[in-house]
Amino acid sequence: MILTLIGCQNNDDDGYTNVLVELEVPAHFPEVTYNLTNNPLTKNGIELGRKLFYEGAVSSTGTVSCGTCHEQKYAFTHHGHTFSHGVNDLEGTRNTPPVQNMAFLENFAWDGATGHLDLFPIIPITTEVEMNETLESVIEKLKNKAGYKALFADAFDDGEVNSENFLLALSQFMVTMVSADAKYDKYIRNEEQLTEDEQQGLAIFEQKCASCHATALFSDGSFRNNGLQPNPKLNDLGRSKVTGFEADNYKFKVPSLRNIAVTAPYMHDGRFGSLEAVLAFYNSGVVDSNTLDPLLHNNGSLGIPTTEQERTVLIAFLNTLTDNTFLEDDRFSEK
Ligand code: HEC
Ligand code: HEC
Q: What does the entry list as the binding residues for heme c 1 (predicted)?
């Protein structure tokens, strides 16, 4: 259980009652970055957020919800799609990242387009190839859709169906989406042993990967160029699209590796179909450039050399990051 109900928040004259929910932070996780004081989690707020996450009316065609591209079984990624697929089957230019442990991140999207979870949904909603809508029109549709007036009234003190409450509810839901019950977590909590291979894989991971894929989130949250050959058609500049600094060219947010076994294809443009391909890339495919991360440029040799045996045990370790409790938790499902 991640959530505990901690009693009545409010029970005022207009009949508004709601129950505050406390986010239980796993002991081995970094601190929560999301400002829970500004948006306290409540039972009804989270429930409304879940409904909105799976609501097709959020898109212009009425058919694409957040959950269309963020599928629970695949750690809320878009299974089988190199690039995201939105309204009218239009294709985006980036691979859909997982939605998990959002409460602990500083920046959202591959290039950190926004530093605030509450503002993030505006991006997919207004992007032409994603949901192609406006926030105003979404709110109008929700006002006219059965059930939502009551759900908003139960979730927020002012009870308004408006964009602020819409965004706060979505955040409340996403904040509760904590993945911390993989075999790896059970190992950290001394509840389960790793096999010999997994143990060796962990040791190599700590030596060769954990400087970027750091902490229990398996990301240090920074933006780096890990040496992918830029895709000439897209020439996605990554972080510098946000900062405008050439020094940020081709840098992308270090992704979490939690649930990595179920989130193929990999990288910001989904170019690799398997973890074997990812490790082969680090071993011999890293391309030099002005912004290549110094960690991948050691004594004249590029990348992260590994033997076949090391790659095998690394993958065994990465498989321990699959969290079936999270992938099957019906608090996060469409129901
Ligand atoms: C058409 C597919 C699609 C839809 C619909 C969609 N997303 Fe996404 N989502 C993506 C892609 C692609 C990215 C990465 C965007 C980028 O890096 O530019 C992303 C990124 C995210 C992130 C940031 C994750 C991270 O690690 O930084 C969050 C949070 C998120 N989406 C939530 C939502 C919510 C909430 C909705 C509904 C309002 C939604 N998404 C709708 C495809 C989609
Ligand atoms: C210098 C920092 C750095 C090091 C060291 C590093 N990575 Fe990465 N890794 C990244 C960045 C940045 C990305 C995203 C790159 C992109 O998509 O443009 C990434 C992406 C990945 C992905 C794809 C994740 C996804 O969701 O698409 C996997 C898997 C991965 N790394 C595994 C590893 C392993 C295993 C090691 C050690 C052998 C390692 N990485 C070492 C920075 C690093």
A: 66, 69-70
Neighbour tally for 295: CB within 10 Å: 13
For the segment 195-232, what is each residue's pLDDT rounded down to a tens digit?
999 999 999 999 999 999 999 999 999 999 999 999 99
Interhelix angle 148-155/135-143, rounded to 10 degrees, is 110
CA atoms of 177 and 166, how far apart (whole Å): 17
| Ligand 2 environment, Cβ below 6 A | 208-209, 211-213, 224, 226, 228, 252, 254-255, 257, 260, 263, 266-268, 275, 278, 282, 293, 295-296, 304, 314
How far does CA 310 lie from the centroid of its chain? Answer: 28
pLDDT tens-digit readout, 75-117: 999 998 999 888 888 889 899 999 999 999 999 999 999 999 9
- Please tell me if the domain spanning 3-179 has the same topology as the one spanning 183-324: yes
To the question of whether residue 28 is assigned a binding role by annotation, the answer is no
- Is 70 a known ligand-binding residue? yes
- Element (DSSP H or E) covering residue 168: helix 163-176
Fold observed for domain 3-179: Cytochrome Bc1 Complex; Chain D, domain 2 (1.10.760)
Q: How far is the CA of 280 from the centre of ligand 1 (A)?
A: 28
